[in-house]
C-alpha cells in the first residue's frame, strides 16, 4: 500500500512580473526620494505659505528637516525593496511576508506624510511631493499581489489559475 508523504517546501518561485514590479518599485522609490531633494524650493515655498512670519534661518531649518526626513525614508524604502528582491531571488518563503510588512509600513509612513496637517493647518509637505511618495506604495501593492500568484515552470504566471480562484 503506497503512502504519500507531503513535504513542505521552503522555496517559492516568483514570476517575472513580480520581479519587474519589485524593480519598478525600487526605481520609483529612488525617484520619490530625489523629488524631495530636488524639490527643496517647492518645500520652501510650501512652508513659507503656511508660516509667512518665519525668518530665513527658521525656514532653512524647516526645509532641511523635511528633506532629511524624506531622504531617510527613501533610503529605508530602497533597503526594503532591495531586501525583498534579494529574498525573492533566493526563492525564500519570507519574501512574500517581508513584502507585506514593508508595504504596510511604507504605505503608512507615506500616507502620514501626505495627509497629516501641521500647526499651520496645511500638510507638512507639498501635496505634489507627498503624492510622488505614494507611487511606490501603489507599485508595492501590485508587487505583493503578484508574489501570491501561482507560477508555472517557466517563471510566468500560471495561465490555468484565474484571479477569481485565488481570492
Q: Which key phrases capture this entry?
A:
single chain, 167 residues, mainly alpha, 6 helices, elongated, disordered C terminus
Task: Characterize the structure shown.
The model is unreliable at 4-9 and 158-167 (pLDDT under 50). The protein has 6 helices and no strands. The two termini are 37 Å apart. The longest helix is centred in the middle third of the chain and has 34 residues, at 56-89. It has 167 residues and is mainly α. It is elongated and about 65 Å long.
Number of strands: 0
How is the biggest beta sheet arranged?
Answer: none
Average pLDDT confidence is 87
Give the topology string: H per helix, E per strand: HHHHHH
Helix vs. strand class: mainly alpha
Helix content: 55-70%
Task: Give the DSSP E fraction (strand runs of 2 or more residues).
Answer: under 5%
| Gross geometry | elongated
From the alpha-carbon coordinates, what is the Rg to the nearest angstrom? 21 Å
First and last CA, distance: 37 Å
Q: pLDDT below 50 for ≥5 consecutive residues: which ranges?
A: 4-9, 158-167
Helical segment tally?
6
Amino acid at each position: 500500500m503506497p503512502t504519500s508523504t507531503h513535504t513542505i517546501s521552503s522555496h517559492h518561485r516568483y514570476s517575472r512580473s513580480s520581479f519587474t514590479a519589485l524593480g519598478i518599485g525600487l526605481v520609483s522609490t529612488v525617484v520619490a526620494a530625489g523629488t524631495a531633494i530636488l524639490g527643496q524650493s517647492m518645500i520652501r515655498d510650501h512652508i513659507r505659505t503656511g508660516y509667512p512670519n518665519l525668518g530665513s534661518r527658521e525656514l532653512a531649518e524647516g526645509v532641511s528637516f523635511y528633506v532629511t526626513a524624506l531622504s531617510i525614508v527613501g533610503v529605508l524604502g530602497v533597503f526594503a525593496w532591495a531586501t525583498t528582491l534579494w529574498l525573492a531571488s533566493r526563492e525564500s518563503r519570507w519574501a512574500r511576508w517581508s513584502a507585506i510588512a514593508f508595504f504596510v509600513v511604507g504605505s503608512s509612513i507615506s500616507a502620514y506624510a501626505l495627509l497629516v496637517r501641521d500647526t499651520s493647518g496645511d500638510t507638512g509637505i507639498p501635496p505634489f511631493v507627498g503624492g510622488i511618495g505614494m507611487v511606490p506604495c501603489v507599485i508595492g501593492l501590485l508587487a505583493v499581489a503578484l508574489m501570491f500568484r501561482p507560477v508555472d515552470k517557466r517563471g510566468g504566471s500560471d495561465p490555468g489559475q484565474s484571479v477569481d480562484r485565488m481570492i
